[in-house]
Amino acid sequence: MANPDKKAVVLLSGGLDSSTVTAIAHSEGYKIYCLSFNYDQRNVAELIAAKKVASFFNVEQHSILDVGLGKIGGSALTDNIKVPKNQNLDHPIKNEIPITYVPARNTIFLSYALAWAEVLEADTIFIGVNVMDYSGYPDCRQEYITAFENMANLATKTGVTGKTILKIKTPLISLSKAQIIKKGTELNLDYSLTLSCYDPDSEGRACGECDSCQQKKKGFKEAGVKDPTIYQ
Amino acid sequence: MANPDKKAVVLLSGGLDSSTVTAIAHSEGYKIYCLSFNYDQRNVAELIAAKKVASFFNVEQHSILDVGLGKIGGSALTDNIKVPKNQNLDHPIKNEIPITYVPARNTIFLSYALAWAEVLEADTIFIGVNVMDYSGYPDCRQEYITAFENMANLATKTGVTGKTILKIKTPLISLSKAQIIKKGTELNLDYSLTLSCYDPDSEGRACGECDSCQQKKKGFKEAGVKDPTIYQ
């Protein structure tokens, strides 16, 4: 336990990555405040997974905010565009932004986390961004996170008074999916609680075919860990 | 008319400042997309003013997003804390953050503007921040805006492709309230449409006593322009 009085806001979608981040924040002894978003996404089932994970780690508080990203549009995750299935992950097109990219999503999520961190006087925000699997997402790169952190420290009361310096921790940023799964498994995370699928069915079961499901399957295989996911 | 094909997202609260910014963006020939927020604020009357101003300038589109800032709290504008009245504006306490400051508000608003700008392929966001009257608000300073702009250009598709460089324009940043009013008056803005009050009554009439009303009254007096506001 690093410092039991330290508070952290953890962005938790209920997926494999952010659930592992919650396990890491927990293992570092933070008081955890999980923040999830209902952004008119089709995969509301993720929020059910997020609740299970927050409960599993007995966090201080779990807030789910309704944010109207759907009104802005521009993504297969919020619009009625078909989620791509069975794409060849080993040959992604260089520099192409995936159709599942939601405009400025991480910026909006981190902004809410920043607001809550200020109210809680928490000095840390955890986010599960990862450059390995999501190389096409501009807001998953370290240079973006560093720029956000710099802006955040100018944006808030604490930034002006110099009382607290806000840190944004990205423990997964350079890990492969297999390494993430190994890490979470070491920390006793029950991955059957999580949901990482762009197109689950009405009972919240993963499709097994979208990019996210394929990456997950591959990751469990490479990690040598049994995949507890129940597919459709 | 600078460039009639240029699109801009304009953050419009319906107050004096952001309405003047809308007038400025209009005078510069932008296609205007106004963005307003319903953030559980007590002054929903502002949104009615925002609609009137957007309509006055015949903008391309006006979106009002529901954003759950109230769940986060920490401000007299979203919590049930009494708005301060009849404070002495000439003797503000140095480095004190006003109780009306909403945590990370401009960061959240600019993040949504960024998302919309990306979808619209707009290269400009206008925001009516001002260091003169709101020196206590950390997220109204130029260094904060510059840091946001830097982050924004790393956050988005266009930032990665280098196709568009996003600019955040702050035409009011170093103007006094009187200078803002003179500018808007030159541009034929009808200030009777606007509402700048932290505590309006049920009919949307300004209180005349909060900091915002006092600054507005003083500004009209100094500008030598008749204040068209109907006070309670």
Description:
- Two copies of one chain form a homodimer.
- Chain A is of the alpha/beta class and 232 residues long.
- Chain A has a single domain (7-223), classed as Rossmann fold (3-Layer(aba) Sandwich), CATH 3.40.50.620.
- In chain A, 35% of the residues lie in helices and 11% in strands.
- Chain A is built from seven helices and five strands, in the order βαβαβαβααβαα.
- Chain A has helices spanning 16-27, 45-56, 105-120, 142-155, 157-161, 177-186, 211-223; strands spanning 7-11, 31-38, 61-66, 124-126, 167-169.
- In chain A, strands 3-2-1-4-5 form a five-stranded parallel beta sheet, with helices on both faces.
- In chain A, helix 6 crosses helix 7.
- Chain A is globular.
- The N and C termini of chain A lie far apart (40 Å).
- At the A-B interface, strand 3, helix 3, helix 4 and helix 5 of A face strand 3, helix 3, helix 4, helix 5 and helix 6 of B.
Quick overview:
The first copy, chain A, is an alpha/beta fold and 232 residues long. Chain A has 7 helices and 5 strands, in the order E-H-E-H-E-H-E-H-H-E-H-H. A 5-stranded parallel beta sheet of chain A has the order 3-2-1-4-5, sandwiched between helices.
